[in-house]
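In keeping with the milestone schedule agreed at the kick-off meeting, the structural modelling team has produced records for the first pair of proteins. Each record is given below as a sequence line and a structure-token line. The laboratory manager (R.T.) confirmed that both were archived under the project's standard naming scheme.
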Amino acid sequence: MDQTLKTVVDKGFSRRGFLAGAGAVSAATLIGCGNSTPVTSTVPTTPTAPAITDIDVLNFALNLEYLEAEFYLRAVTGNGVPAADGGGATITVPGTTIVNFTDPFIKAIAVEQAQTELSHIRALRATITQNGGTPINQPALDYTDAFNTIAMNAGIGSGFNPFASELNYLIGALTFPDVGVTAYTGGAALLQSKTILAAAAGFQATEAYHAGMFRNVLSYQSLASKDTTYLNYFNEVVQLRSKLGGGNETVLYQGAGTLPSFSSTGKYTGVAPSTIVAADGNALAYARTTDQVLHIVYGTMPGTYTASGGFFPSGMNGTIKQPTT
């Protein structure tokens, strides 16, 4: 019974993902081994992928920018995206607090990151409007349950609060731009307008800067302190994202965060295969489909068609919001 439940939990970290992933396990097993009533499992019907436009792709990206900006803003100001920038939507995100930054460099990065993501929202909304579209309103967001369930399924522990310390913040902060880079890279192939493609390339480049910056800071922190704890945490999150989103991931060091060797005087002597740059064998950024991104942010495994969960408890807004693979 314990192993069966563990297998089901491994299929996704949202409650809905858990329920959707339990289709192959009989209700009799979940309810109690003593129930002998025959139960027939049903195979979910594959949804039909909607026809999408360039505006739909931009609105899909806008959902992700809302997710990032809300997190970074709350970490440095205690407040989220202004209602005027969220389409008039006022959302409540419980459990978020200002991070107690003790390192002035990390704090400076966090402040700049918050402003950058807010600027992305404004630029994306303007691009959508200028091209005849209507920007989506900000959707409901959840960081507390999402990060707690990520921690549980990544093997970090029963819970994880990314606002509890600046090192915790780094783990939370790194969760988003890595996905953003792959989302923009994959989304580029869906765009028809060269003007919109050029704008998307600009967003993708900034997300890549952010991901590389946070990866560098976390790697340096581990080397300087000779402590792999937070590097290992991040690499566990990477492994989980890889399961949900079709691979396309790179840990910070091979061997799930194993540090290079040090001499007795603390001098760095080893050679570590650096993977600070998340790229393939040709040094090209990874790409993800919209479905793969949805599975990551909803916390569901491929083959689960739930259109909400994880960071988006009520789902994304716009046309691209339900996985079809």
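The second protein of the pair:
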Amino acid sequence: MPRAGELTYYQSLGERGRRFALNKPFTGRERGLVMMEIGAMLTLLPPTPARVLECGCGTGWLTHFLQKCGYQATGVDVAPAAIELARTNAVLGTPGAAEFHVMDVEAMTFDNQFDAVVFYAALHHALDEEAALRSAYRALRPGGVCVTSEPGTGHGRKGAGAAAKWDTTEKDMPPKHIARLGKKVGFRRSVYYPQGRDLGRLVFTQDPLGGNALIRFLLSLRPTRYLASLWLMLGHKRNKGITVLYK
């Protein structure tokens, strides 16, 4: 069962917060990095017009985006208010083009119906992520893929304030943990990739990671940034990155 705050989150946001959520991915200072991440995930999905299920879709912006790309897209979220917003999302949505359901991702009723399942910053909100991945596995056809992009190691500590404020679940969700649970529920193989937004932050932004003065100086040097990008691609992706699970 979800925490109470996850059922009422969008009511608690207020009108301004709901408008911000509805206008994703065009809102926020990191909109360009978010689009890089979505682009990275798109390249890992099967070709259109595959059937894709987004778990924890919120206001449905990514589900609508997938539909605009040519996928047969379905979104599910545990919060009725989120699904109501998703069905009426006028920013990206075309009425009736994408399908939405109020459903707990830990207990979905889909069986052998989808070519791909997507978790974008959603699996770390699950009380039981193993149950969510088992539901995703069951929803997939043989040969299907589950693509996840989640906050990695350390997020539980960073998100503690938000969890207390909104009564939601915030936890670490590194790729190595997702891969271990994926194998446990039946996925035959897993592959890690660096997050598109992290690579974009290192390569394109003026202040890639913040930090102390020495780190800021080192990362102001292009060679250091490229070495840091290589570190993301070769090693750190196990702690924070995109995970692809193959059924």
